[in-house]
Amino acid sequence: MGRVFGELHVHPSKKAFGIKGDPEIFKVRAEADTVKVNGGRWHMDVSCDENPPTGSILRLLELPPHGGDTVFCDMNRAFETLSAPIQRMLVELDACHDGLRDLRWYGLTPDPGQTYPSWVHPVVTAHPVSGLPVLFVNEGFTEEIIDMSYDESRSVLGMLFDHVARNPGLQCRATWEPGTVVMWDNRAVQHFAVHDYAPHKRLGERVSVVGQEPPVAWGRD
């Protein structure tokens, strides 16, 4: 199904760690003792790539008896619900998206010689189809805002991360049932996997479609 929409993406962890199995299928797994689940904080899939995936498709093979929803946030509305002064500041900024940030959260470190992508993208991007502004920073991968001090960057990003996480009016939930398949536009939404089912297991498979171009800034002269 994924190939209907384009070439399938190979997750950088498959390349960096030599994970076996189909390179185009990313396993989403939580065991009874898992503390930090795949997708356990707000993110866009692999936004640290030069051309982040355009979309992803997920199905669950093993569901917990309760919980395990996936929450999505509309990043156009996330931008449009910010105040005008904040919007004017953000459209001029760029941010570094670093895959090592994601790995650190899981307690992983590449071996010497292994690489993981890192790329600079505009903080506000233009959706390639609609042209609408999209707030393009996420807690999973966005490490810092370029040309800001550490404290400035941390404060601005913290405010934006909270704006995404604490506004249910920007969000919707996918509640999984046997046979459910969910596809999302990775250029327009963030998502978050709710881990409210421990000690039960949850297993899924995801494919992502290769991005065709880097994100383009919105609102700059």
CATH architecture: 4-Layer Sandwich
Order of strands, widest sheet: 1-12-2-10
How many β-strand runs?
Answer: 12
Mean residue pLDDT: 94
Given helix and strand content, the structural type is alpha+beta
Number of helices: 5
Largest sheet: 4 strands, antiparallel
- What's the domain count? 1
Q: Assign the CATH class.
A: Alpha Beta
The amount of beta strand, in percent, is 25-35%
Tell me the series of helices and strands, N- to C-terminal.
Answer: HEEEHHEHEEEEHEEEE
Helix content: 10-25%
CATH superfamily annotation: Clavaminate synthase-like
Low-confidence stretches are none
Query: What is the fold-level CATH name, i.e. the topology?
Result: Double-stranded beta-helix
Shape: globular
- Please give the radius of gyration in angstroms: 17 Å
Distance between the termini: 39 Å
Detailed description of the structure:
The chain is α+β, with helices and mostly antiparallel strands and 221 residues long. The protein has one domain: Double-stranded beta-helix, CATH 3.60.130.10. It is built from 5 helices and 12 strands. The strands form 4 sheets. A 4-stranded antiparallel sheet has the order 1-12-2-10, with no helix packed on it. A 3-stranded antiparallel sheet has the order 9-3-11. A 3-stranded antiparallel sheet has the order 5-4-8. The longest helix is centred in the last third of the chain and has 16 residues. It is globular and about 50 Å long. The mean pLDDT is 94.
